[in-house]
Amino acid sequence: MEMLKRPRRLRGSEVLRKMVRETRMDKASLIYPMFVKEGSGIIEEIPTMPGQFRYSVDTQGEILSKLQDAGVKNVMFFGIPDHKDEVGSGAYDPEGIVQKALRRARKDFPEMYLITDVCMCEYTSHGHCGVLCGHDVDNDRTLELLAKTALSHVEAGADMVAPSDMMDGRVRAIREMLDANGHYTAPIMSYAVKYASGFYGPFRDAAGSAPSFGDRKSYQMDFHNSREGIKEALMDVEEGADIIMVKPAMAYQDMITRVREEVNVPVAAYSVSGEYAMVKAGASLGYIEEERIISEMAVGVYRAGADIYLTYFAPEIARLMDEGRIG
Ligand code: PBG
Fold this sequence. Notes:
two-stranded antiparallel sheet, globular, binds ligand PBG, Delta-aminolevulinic acid dehydratase
């Protein structure tokens, strides 16, 4: 049989397969999202995210040192406050939970890179991502509060802020506020291409941030749209975003690829709580092999074009890289 091209030639051994790999990964690009909660002595497992925990400021060191040992140096903080109000004042309180966690982490883990999620849904009594005007989020009033929140995070020790609220104009409002206060060097990672998604379900349990009425469809994107995502990404770059994020990751890999082609800043992808929960649930029932699924999800995101990967599986992925199984 005459056949000059045989793709199987390059698959003949592990050494060769590794030589010709197209996707290379590095632990330096992993970000681990974690939950810090008001109180003390808390290490509580999140029921819908087995293996993930809420920590108080006095216990957060436990996970931070595990991450450091695993070679994961980047974390993103989400706060769970002990009180909520109409205007989400806990989000920008200098004594708020994230601010306290930052000051402690800055002191105890000077090597770690500290990123914060900037949003109001964990802090508002109604669970929406900004202040309300009637039954809708008041975009422009919310901008001031988001900018204040970002500033208070940077002042408490955050290296980078990541607005996830999806208000129009927030990147610019935050950039101007940080610059006006001399924080020119703190980058903004924008959740620019963020869809209204069922994949956030477990997170809302974890953070107690489900909206008390309605949904987030008037500010997060409709999952039928992709051109709109490019519009959001380009606008945020114009407004000063340093990194553009696509979220969720698994069902949105086309967007990772498209955004990668359209912008000249690093692209991050966030494998969200529901992606984590599905893997855990499927694996605990014996339907799938956890490590193989984690590996394919991670490599898939980088193969699609992501430069940075946010995932609750960051420590496991770091280990799989150390063991030479992926990357
Ligand atoms: C805050 C925020 C959410 C997530 C990240 N930032 C929840 C939401 O928008 O409802 C989701 C993260 C995850 O599901 O892992 N707005």
